[in-house]
Amino acid sequence: MGYAVNVHARATLITPPDEFLGMYDESGRKWMMDTVRRADDGDSEAMKALDVLSGRRIEEIGTRALDRLIAEGSSWAPLLLGRLFEERCQTDDDVCTAIRLYEESADKTNPYAMVAMARIFEKGDHVVRSFHNAYIQYKRAAFMGCPPAVEWMERNGEKGRC
Predict the structure, then answer these.
(1) Mean pLDDT throughout 55-65?
(2) Which of 7, 24, 55, 149 measures 20 to 30 Å from 133, CA to CA?
(3) pLDDT recorded at residue 97
(4) Are 79 and 109 in contact (CB under 8 A)?
(5) How many CA atoms lie within 13 A of 60 on its CB side?
């Protein structure tokens, strides 16, 4: 099973195969590991592919690959695992786990993790709502050129500062 390629106006986006045979399907794990490693190496197309990957889709692919990548020092694997915890969000502990994983990813200078934390603080779901903390994370990520953060800063700028 090969990679599917979607052509957008300004970028070619690598997406996972439409269907995996199961949660631990080898093609899904291989796609995940290859794409995360490429994103860790700075490949912007891989970053875009991972940015749109939902928690449910991550769970379908399987989390074992992410655990292995975290052990290797990946900055993207904690972000994806955090997204899984955030989306299932059954308890405050799930959100705390997501934030801890996002922080681990952000500490490795992953701006998409900073955006993920900013969104949690902005929404205030299972955490104290803090526009100030959200602003700080968006600003850090925008400084690194992360498109969602740059867009947020353009829309909100200093008024988002609270």
Answers:
(1) 73
(2) 55
(3) 87
(4) no
(5) 15
